[in-house]
């Protein structure tokens, strides 16, 4: 297996990190790939860069306006959802020479574009087919592993929520499907998930118990109570009509 010692960073206390070095992702990928060393060397001589963490709403014109500050751009290839053919948060920028690509890597990394801190990495060269997402839902894999809500990248990760479906919670799965956003509310926000559990504390069909439920009658609507009240009123009337002798 080829050694990547020439790309390993030398730690000097009096020096800063190089801005044009390959990312940790490329180094990790190169160690697993038998041709990884050759691809890394090719990336340093390539005029193509990879741009990630883009907003789904960032246009090609905005990307051109930003990256043209580092050189002449020959082509911009937007990353697309392989099912919907809509932007999914990454792109490839091809410059006229390798030095311009290195300048973009050094000076534009972590730039804020459309309220997103973009990431830039070296790329050995664009090949047809790489413009499509590789996730199960058609987008990027990183979006399917994201837990937090991100409005600029499609909201919640619905494909990841679909992976959480199990056979024992069909009612809960129906709620996720009807919701359409993949949001998983806490249990106390939805109440009980079982249709056999009554909201009144017992078991059985909820609709049946609601139909059998009768409100408590008022005292003046009950005959036995009215009779007792009438008896008390007669005694009080006799006391009022009492004439001492």
TrEMBL record:
Residues 233-245 have a biased composition (Acidic residues). GO terms for biological process: mRNA 3'-end processing; mRNA cis splicing, via spliceosome; mRNA export from nucleus; mRNA transcription by RNA polymerase II; nuclear-transcribed mRNA catabolic process; response to osmotic stress. The keyword NADP does not apply. One of its GO terms (molecular function) is RNA cap binding. Residues 211-224 have a biased composition (Basic and acidic residues). Residues 180-245 are annotated as: Disordered. InterPro entries: NCBP2, NCBP2_RRM, Nucleotide-bd_a/b_plait_sf, RBD_domain_sf, RRM_dom. Residues 47-125 form the RRM domain. The keyword RNA-binding applies. Pfam families: RRM_1. It comes from the Eukaryota. Keywords: mRNA processing, mRNA splicing, mRNA transport, Nucleus, RNA-binding, Transport. Coiled coil: none annotated. It is found in: Nucleus. GO terms for cellular component: commitment complex; nuclear cap binding complex. Belongs to the RRM NCBP2 family. This is Nuclear cap-binding protein subunit 2. It comes from Naumovozyma castellii. The gene is NCAS0D03580.
């Amino acid at each position: 297996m080829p050694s990547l010692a020439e790309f390993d960073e030398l730690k000097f206390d009096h020096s800063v990190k190089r801005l044009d070095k390959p990312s940790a992702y490329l180094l990790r990928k190169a160690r697993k790939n038998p041709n990884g060393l050759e691809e890394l060397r090719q990336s340093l001589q390539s005029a193509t860069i990879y741009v990630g963490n883009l907003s789904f709403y960032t246009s090609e014109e905005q990307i051109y306006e930003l990256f043209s500050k580092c050189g002449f751009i020959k082509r911009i290839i937007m990353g697309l959802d392989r099912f919907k053919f809509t932007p999914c948060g990454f792109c490839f920028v091809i410059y006229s020479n390798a030095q311009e690509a290195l300048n973009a890597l050094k000076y534009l990394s972590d730039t804020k574009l459309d309220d997103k801190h973009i990431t830039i990495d070296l790329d050995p060269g664009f090949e047809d087919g790489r413009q499509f997402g590789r996730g199960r839902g058609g987008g990027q894999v990183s979006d399917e592993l994201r837990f937090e809500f991100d409005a600029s990248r499609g909201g919640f990760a619905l494909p990841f929520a679909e992976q959480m479906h199990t056979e024992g919670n069909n009612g809960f799965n129906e709620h996720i499907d009807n919701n359409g956003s993949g949001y998983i509310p806490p249990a106390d926000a939805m109440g009980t998930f079982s249709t056999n559990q009554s909201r009144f504390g017992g078991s059985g069909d909820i609709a049946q118990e609601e139909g059998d439920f009768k409100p408590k009658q008022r005292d003046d609507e009950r005959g036995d109570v009215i009779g007792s009240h009438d008896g008390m009123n007669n005694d009080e009337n006799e006391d009022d009509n009492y004439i001492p002798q």
